[in-house]
């Protein structure tokens, strides 16, 4: 369904190029859930925004392709992109309060989203006036019910501030779903919510994935969340994908030293208790970063050679690759 090929984007600042997304390639098949994980500032959000061409000045796409259903989104006109956004591809952001409009009733916003996407054109053809409005309201309320907003008959008339954070996020998911998108991009959709609500929202997204076959890319800094929710995981570090593979394999057999570090730094849910160890050091500055391994200075297995060359993705087993010289077959 989606294939990103060698995508690079950078922010042009007066100090130089901040390479937020550096030669990324990844693909998503129909009905698949892919997680993108990594520490703050590694380019996860930038990657998602690139898919929809929503990166703002001074950000600029330098090269690459974003193939969606066989066509390159980077070659589409602005108008074509507007049609694709919210119709074929919907996006959910971290903070629902900033994306719901405070001055309109939540239900009306959902109804409006459905109207924009022509969802009502096949509602009992020829309905007029009040009857049409009622039919539309019914449909909007159905959608509210589907995303788990209780008593939609009443909730329809509430404003955003009368909704809890979890309910706001549900309303936004309803708006995202109003067009029946094929692909849902979710940028930390549950980070602002408490743990039980977070689990409910993820369960809701999973249900949508299973029932409607909607493909999902979930951006999260939380490897534990990605492990529970995603079929495959891509680990990003300093603008590059450093490891990608099936979730079980990433969790049971992490290959890149950075992924191993991330795993050690999350609390174990089950099994043997291990001491939580944060990865020493911090993420490098993306300003004028070169092509060598950016994790080198924090890595306990690196050598001189990691600093001297552009390291390719190396397949460690079928469908599982890591950008690390440990797997090059040469002495590191
Ligand atoms: N307007 C800008 N000008 C310069 N650099 C920017 C700008 N916006 C973002 N960046 C840089 O781009 C890089 C990638 O940012 P991005 O938001 O994609 O990271 P992220 O992985 O989503 O992080 P987080 O987990 O904090 O959301 C960061 O290093 C950030 O500092
Ligand atoms: Ni982000």
TrEMBL record:
GO biological process: one example: peptide transport
Q: Which InterPro entries match?
A: AAA+_ATPase, ABC_Ni/Peptide_Import, ABC_transporter-like_ATP-bd, ABC_transporter-like_CS, Oligopep_ABC_C, P-loop_NTPase
Identify the Pfam families for this entry.
Answer: ABC_tran (PF00005), oligo_HPY (PF08352)
Superkingdom per UniProt: Bacteria
Subcellular compartments: Cell membrane
Q: What is its EC number?
A: 7.2.2.11
**What SUPFAM superfamilies does the database record attribute to this sequence?**
P-loop containing nucleoside triphosphate hydrolases
What is this entry's stated membrane topology? Peripheral membrane protein
For the protein in the UniProt heading, the enzyme class is: translocase
Instruction: Return the GO cellular component terms, semicolon-separated.
Output: plasma membrane
Alphabetically list the UniProt keywords. Answer: ATP-binding, Cell membrane, Ion transport, Membrane, Nickel, Nickel transport, Nucleotide-binding, Translocase, Transport
**Reaction(s) the record says it catalyses:** Ni(2+)(out) + ATP + H2O = Ni(2+)(in) + ADP + phosphate + H(+)
The ABC transporter domain, residue ranges: 2-263
Q: Which family does it belong to?
A: Belongs to the ABC transporter superfamily.
- NCBIfam families, per the entry: oligo_HPY
Indicate the quaternary assembly: The complex is composed of two ATP-binding proteins (NikD and NikE), two transmembrane proteins (NikB and NikC) and a solute-binding protein (NikA).
Identify this protein by name.
Nickel import system ATP-binding protein NikD
